[in-house]
Automatic annotation (TrEMBL):
InterPro entries: CellSynth/LPSAsmb/PSIAsmb, TPR-like_helical_dom_sf, TPR_rpt. It comes from Ardenticatena maritima. It comes from the Bacteria. SMART domains: TPR. Signal peptide: none annotated. Keywords: Repeat, TPR repeat. PANTHER family: LIPOPOLYSACCHARIDE ASSEMBLY PROTEIN B, TPR REPEAT-CONTAINING PROTEIN PA4667. This is Uncharacterized protein. TPR repeats lie at residues 12-45, 46-79, 113-146.
Amino acid sequence: MTTILDFRQGVAQRLLREGRRYEAKGDLSAAADTYRRAVEMDPDFCPARLALADQYRKLGRFEEALEQCRIAVELMPDAHTHLQLAQLLMELGHFAEAESALLHVLRDEPENNVARFTLAFLYYRRRDYATAITEFYRVAQLDPNWATFFFLGDCYFSLERFDVAQRVWKTALLYATSSDEFDLTRNALQRVRRYLEFPQRDYADLKAHYYREDGVVYLGTAEDDGLHIPPYISHDFTFRDIAVTLRRLVALLEALGMTFDAVAPVDIVSLPLALALSHWWGTRTEPLPTDHVLLVQALGREAASLRMVAEEQMSAITFCLSVGWREPWLPDLIGVVAPLKSSVPWYAPDAPHADAQCQLDRADHLAQTLLQEMHTLPPDPNLDAQLAYYTEQHRLLRFAPAPRLQ
């Protein structure tokens, strides 16, 4: 005889299946609502609570997700529920409680490699790299995979054991199963190889810092010698300043054998720079989709505009005269990094009415002024040393063809 309890359990199971269909279609809100109805129909139905918790997590409703996970653990205190609770706690930064839940799983199932990896990753997130290394090696013994070796390498890198990090990341490369994993690992290997180029690290050396971290070129301006570049808080560029930076840019790109089909500005303020460079090389400023392009930005207040244009152009290298944003992404070539507002002679950053048409009409005249400055500059006394820095000593540039990994 079918009881009310059997009926409610049957309806809850049907709603769980229905919610999974919504989830497969990507309709997270409908999936969450359906799982919630399943829980209301049968409050003791643990799979529905776990599914609801997962949907709440995906929707950013973390406290509600945590509540559902805790109830699920009370209903069914097995490895699966404790593991899902631990993963959510770790995502919320509750590391001590997450560690306790994971250790509970591993006491019952010592070879649960998902729990072991999650525990290792928890120590990694907590920056307890020595403990994380021990746990990642235990995971690797049971199930060697890309993620384990990748994060293991990052632990060694964070401890400045760069030679070991390099060896581990080479192993990770062997286990990469997707282009994303392969690219992430190659980038990590390039980064550690750049660090290994500096046996003695001066962390006040900005030119070395931006090269080591991101493989980008730091050119400087007329206030420095191109090798020892002081911190710039802001910078009001003169025509001579800009000409010095552009001369260094041109000399380096020509020394690297790089040519462009077009030099394109990302905004109206950057047009005089792009025109000056396009006149110098005899290229156009309106690129075709297949062109090899140098994208030019004068004053970088935020990364989105330059990055978005670079992603749309199939083959582009990026240059920004003054980078002022806080985002971690950087262009390939930088004049200076100045966290406060910089300016160029034809643009006042605080002007209430910047006349775009006037700037457009004046752009070619401004470009000719820049070209005249570039042509009349005295020789840069240490230009050979500036070029050797990137063509002979530190060649692992992000935008240049990478030397073959050994």
